[in-house]
């Protein structure tokens, strides 16, 4: 079952998949979309990202993380999480979605390909990370 997590469930998912404590202000930040997969009361996976408004009035989705517990992989949970995320984004007006994954992450790339995704049409892309200092 895929659910929008309550604060306690989000806290458990963040601890399980990020090894950290949750900042519950995250749940009220504009555009945040988070889903948790449950197998009974066990958290078997999660995904989170953002609905991003665009200057032309449209919106797009950014999927930041999708993870399924190793014991629950190859059961369709990642597919359920991703399709739930995409459907909710489309219902909220998004027309495109983007994400990044490792070039060698074959299971993730197979899932994204199977759901109609593909490499960026503008050609190869490079991701940059910046660590930001506070003034």
Automatic annotation (TrEMBL):
<dbReference type="InterPro" id="IPR016181">
    <property type="entry name" value="Acyl_CoA_acyltransferase"/>
</dbReference>
<dbReference type="GO" id="GO:0016747">
    <property type="term" value="F:acyltransferase activity, transferring groups other than amino-acyl groups"/>
</dbReference>
<dbReference type="InterPro" id="IPR000182">
    <property type="entry name" value="GNAT_dom"/>
</dbReference>
<protein>
    <submittedName>
        <fullName>Acetyltransferase (GNAT) family protein</fullName>
    </submittedName>
</protein>
<feature type="domain" description="N-acetyltransferase">
    <location>
        <begin position="1"/>
        <end position="135"/>
    </location>
</feature>
<keyword id="KW-0808">Transferase</keyword>
<dbReference type="Pfam" id="PF00583">
    <property type="entry name" value="Acetyltransf_1"/>
</dbReference>
């Amino acid at each position: 079952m895929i659910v929008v997590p309550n604060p306690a469930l989000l806290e458990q998912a963040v601890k399980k998949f990020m090894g950290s404590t949750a900042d519950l202000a995250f749940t009220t930040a504009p555009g945040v979309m988070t889903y948790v997969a449950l197998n009974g009361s066990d958290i078997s996976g999660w995904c989170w990202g953002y609905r991003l408004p665009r200057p032309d009035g449209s919106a797009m989705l950014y999927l930041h993380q999708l993870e399924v517990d190793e014991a629950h992989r190859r059961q369709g949970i990642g597919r359920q999480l991703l399709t739930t995320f995409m459907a909710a984004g489309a219902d909220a007006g998004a027309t495109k979605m983007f994400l990044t994954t490792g070039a060698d992450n074959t299971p993730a790339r197979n899932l994204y390909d199977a759901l109609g995704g593909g490499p960026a049409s503008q050609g190869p892309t490079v991701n940059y990370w910046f660590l930001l200092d506070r003034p």
